[in-house]
Amino acid sequence: xxxxxxxxxxxxxxxxxxxxxxxxxxxxxxxxxxxxxxxxxxxxxxxxxxxxxxxxxxxxxxxxxxxxxxxxxxxxxxxxxxxxxxxxxxxxxxxxxxxxxxxxxxxxxxxxxxxxxxxxxxxxxxxxxxxx
Length: 132
Description:
This protein is of the alpha+beta class. The protein is 31% helix and 36% strand. The protein has a single domain, classed as GMP Synthetase, Chain A, domain 3 (2-Layer Sandwich), CATH 3.30.300.20. A 4-stranded mixed beta sheet has the order 4-5-6-7, with helices on one face. Strands 1-2-3 form a 3-stranded antiparallel beta sheet, with no helix packed on it.
Protein backbone atom coordinates (compact mmCIF):
# COMPACT_ATOMS: atom_id res chain seq x y z
CA UNK A 1 0.00 0.00 0.00
CA UNK A 2 1.22 3.48 -0.85
CA UNK A 3 -0.06 6.59 0.86
CA UNK A 4 0.44 10.18 -0.25
CA UNK A 5 -0.32 13.54 1.30
CA UNK A 6 -0.28 17.17 0.26
CA UNK A 7 -1.14 20.42 1.94
CA UNK A 8 -2.45 23.57 0.33
CA UNK A 9 -2.16 26.92 2.07
CA UNK A 10 -4.79 29.68 1.99
CA UNK A 11 -2.85 31.26 -0.90
CA UNK A 12 -3.21 27.90 -2.73
CA UNK A 13 0.48 26.98 -2.57
CA UNK A 14 0.74 23.19 -2.58
CA UNK A 15 3.36 21.17 -0.73
CA UNK A 16 4.12 17.49 -0.99
CA UNK A 17 4.45 15.43 2.15
CA UNK A 18 7.69 14.15 0.58
CA UNK A 19 9.19 17.66 0.49
CA UNK A 20 10.44 19.22 -2.72
CA UNK A 21 9.69 22.67 -4.04
CA UNK A 22 6.33 24.25 -3.23
CA UNK A 23 3.95 24.49 -6.17
CA UNK A 24 2.55 28.02 -6.27
CA UNK A 25 -0.90 28.67 -7.65
CA UNK A 26 -0.73 30.29 -11.07
CA UNK A 27 -3.67 31.61 -13.06
CA UNK A 28 -2.63 29.67 -16.17
CA UNK A 29 -2.35 26.33 -14.34
CA UNK A 30 -5.74 24.99 -13.34
CA UNK A 31 -6.43 21.80 -11.41
CA UNK A 32 -7.52 20.23 -14.70
CA UNK A 33 -4.04 20.79 -16.15
CA UNK A 34 -2.53 19.08 -13.12
CA UNK A 35 -4.69 15.99 -13.74
CA UNK A 36 -3.33 15.84 -17.30
CA UNK A 37 0.24 16.32 -16.03
CA UNK A 38 -0.31 13.53 -13.52
CA UNK A 39 -1.61 11.21 -16.25
CA UNK A 40 1.39 11.77 -18.53
CA UNK A 41 3.98 11.71 -15.76
CA UNK A 42 2.51 8.53 -14.26
CA UNK A 43 2.42 6.76 -17.64
CA UNK A 44 6.01 7.78 -18.41
CA UNK A 45 7.14 6.59 -14.95
CA UNK A 46 5.40 3.27 -15.58
CA UNK A 47 7.08 3.03 -19.00
CA UNK A 48 10.49 3.67 -17.42
CA UNK A 49 9.87 0.97 -14.81
CA UNK A 50 8.77 -1.68 -17.29
CA UNK A 51 11.52 -0.81 -19.78
CA UNK A 52 14.15 -1.28 -17.05
CA UNK A 53 12.61 -4.62 -16.07
CA UNK A 54 12.81 -5.72 -19.71
CA UNK A 55 16.45 -4.61 -19.95
CA UNK A 56 15.59 -1.73 -22.28
CA UNK A 57 16.66 1.90 -22.22
CA UNK A 58 13.79 4.27 -23.04
CA UNK A 59 13.68 8.02 -23.50
CA UNK A 60 10.16 9.41 -23.72
CA UNK A 61 8.00 12.53 -23.60
CA UNK A 62 4.26 13.02 -23.75
CA UNK A 63 1.34 15.38 -24.15
CA UNK A 64 -2.29 15.11 -23.05
CA UNK A 65 -5.59 16.81 -23.73
CA UNK A 66 -9.01 16.43 -22.22
CA UNK A 67 -12.58 17.59 -22.57
CA UNK A 68 -14.71 18.46 -19.57
CA UNK A 69 -18.46 18.84 -19.74
CA UNK A 70 -21.54 17.73 -17.86
CA UNK A 71 -21.91 13.97 -17.99
CA UNK A 72 -25.28 12.81 -19.19
CA UNK A 73 -25.28 10.01 -16.63
CA UNK A 74 -25.29 12.22 -13.52
CA UNK A 75 -25.16 15.88 -14.62
CA UNK A 76 -21.74 16.44 -13.01
CA UNK A 77 -18.81 18.15 -14.69
CA UNK A 78 -16.05 15.66 -15.42
CA UNK A 79 -13.51 14.64 -18.00
CA UNK A 80 -15.55 12.92 -20.70
CA UNK A 81 -12.68 12.48 -23.14
CA UNK A 82 -8.96 12.09 -22.47
CA UNK A 83 -6.15 11.49 -24.90
CA UNK A 84 -2.40 11.32 -24.60
CA UNK A 85 0.43 11.03 -27.10
CA UNK A 86 3.83 9.65 -26.28
CA UNK A 87 7.08 9.80 -28.23
CA UNK A 88 9.42 7.00 -27.21
CA UNK A 89 12.96 6.19 -28.29
CA UNK A 90 14.27 2.75 -27.42
CA UNK A 91 17.94 1.90 -27.69
CA UNK A 92 18.37 -1.34 -29.59
CA UNK A 93 14.68 -1.61 -30.55
CA UNK A 94 13.13 -4.96 -29.62
CA UNK A 95 10.72 -6.91 -31.80
CA UNK A 96 7.18 -5.51 -32.28
CA UNK A 97 5.67 -7.99 -29.81
CA UNK A 98 8.00 -6.84 -27.05
CA UNK A 99 7.20 -3.19 -27.85
CA UNK A 100 3.45 -3.89 -27.72
CA UNK A 101 3.85 -5.68 -24.37
CA UNK A 102 5.94 -2.81 -22.98
CA UNK A 103 3.34 -0.19 -23.98
CA UNK A 104 0.48 -2.28 -22.56
CA UNK A 105 2.34 -2.62 -19.27
CA UNK A 106 3.09 1.12 -19.21
CA UNK A 107 -0.61 1.94 -19.60
CA UNK A 108 -1.77 -0.73 -17.16
CA UNK A 109 0.82 0.36 -14.59
CA UNK A 110 -0.36 3.98 -14.43
CA UNK A 111 -2.60 4.29 -11.40
CA UNK A 112 -3.71 7.79 -12.44
CA UNK A 113 -5.17 6.51 -15.71
CA UNK A 114 -6.67 3.56 -13.82
CA UNK A 115 -8.26 5.93 -11.30
CA UNK A 116 -10.19 8.06 -13.79
CA UNK A 117 -13.83 7.37 -14.68
CA UNK A 118 -13.05 7.80 -18.39
CA UNK A 119 -10.18 5.72 -19.73
CA UNK A 120 -7.54 7.70 -21.66
CA UNK A 121 -6.93 6.97 -25.33
CA UNK A 122 -3.17 6.62 -25.72
CA UNK A 123 -1.24 7.00 -28.97
CA UNK A 124 2.37 5.88 -29.07
CA UNK A 125 5.19 6.58 -31.49
CA UNK A 126 8.21 4.38 -30.88
CA UNK A 127 11.44 5.09 -32.72
CA UNK A 128 9.50 7.16 -35.24
CA UNK A 129 6.83 4.52 -35.92
CA UNK A 130 3.26 5.05 -34.76
CA UNK A 131 1.86 2.00 -33.01
CA UNK A 132 -1.74 0.91 -32.46
